[in-house]
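Try it yourself: sequence plus zinc ion, in.
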Amino acid sequence: MRCKECDGMLFVIRVEEVPKGKNYISYNRLCDVECISCKKVYYSQPYDSGRGLNEVRDISQKKESKFENND
Ligand SMILES: [Zn+2]
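Structure, out:
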C-alpha cells in the first residue's frame, strides 16, 4: 500500500480491535495508516482483507475453474 499523494510508504498507526462476539479469524479489521514521507493519514483502511486464508482459497478456486474450462 502506497500514499496516493506522494507514493511514500505507509505504516500502520492503529488497528481496530475485533468486537466481542465476532470471529477473530474471519473478521476483517480496519486500521489507520500514515505516510512516512508527507504524514498524510488514511483512516479505516482494510487490515485483514486480502491476506491469509481467504486469499489462498480464492486463488485455488480460480485455478480449479480454469482447468475445468480447458477440458
Ligand atoms: Zn505521502
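One thing you can check immediately is this: The CA atoms of residues 28 and 58 lie 16 Å apart.
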